[in-house]
Design goal:
This protein has 200 residues and is of the alpha/beta class. The chain has helices at residues 18-31, 61-69, 87-96, 127-141, 170-193; strands at 2-7, 36-41, 73-81, 84-85, 115-122, 150-154.
Amino acid sequence: MRALVLNCTLKPSPTPSNTDVLADVVIKALREKDVDVEVIRAVDHRIPPGVETDMGEGDDWPKIHELLKYSDILIIATPTWLGQPSSVAKLLLERMDAMISEKKDDGTYAAYNKVAGVVVTGNEDGAHHVISEVAGALIDIGFTIPGQAWTYWNMGPGPGPSYTETAHGHEWSESTGKTMAANLFAAASALKANPLPPAG
């Protein structure tokens, strides 16, 4: 089984990413189930805005789209900015919009029989809103979202430390992340055994 994690931090490598650290909890739990996990930090790639799979010369999205095509599990990991998913997360979801009309060889839509989940960080509240925005978009594209396929961390109201600057709330976020990994794996296994049929 294969999983693709798209880290939507605004920070290019090698700058440390809080979102990366929380996503690692889920990644480790998936790898313990022998899932082959690939992680992409989107800002390290040239991904122009648009709603097509290939925007032409210099577009790195087609390579990522190819990885997505062969993945059973997708995880969108995003920080919270202004109470919303990062601009990078929105960009990637817009690029995935093209998958709505793409079909596989068996006649199913591109995202059918793939499961997805969401990881969110932020030092203020808004995580549930971010999860609902990202999950809603992924459902539109055709992904299956199992129950409790998310984890998040925030410090609470007002300015404060980031995820890696405090131990506050880590136990809950990490426990929820492990449950997220288990649920994604179970749902992906179920779809492999009993896949959704082609539309119509």
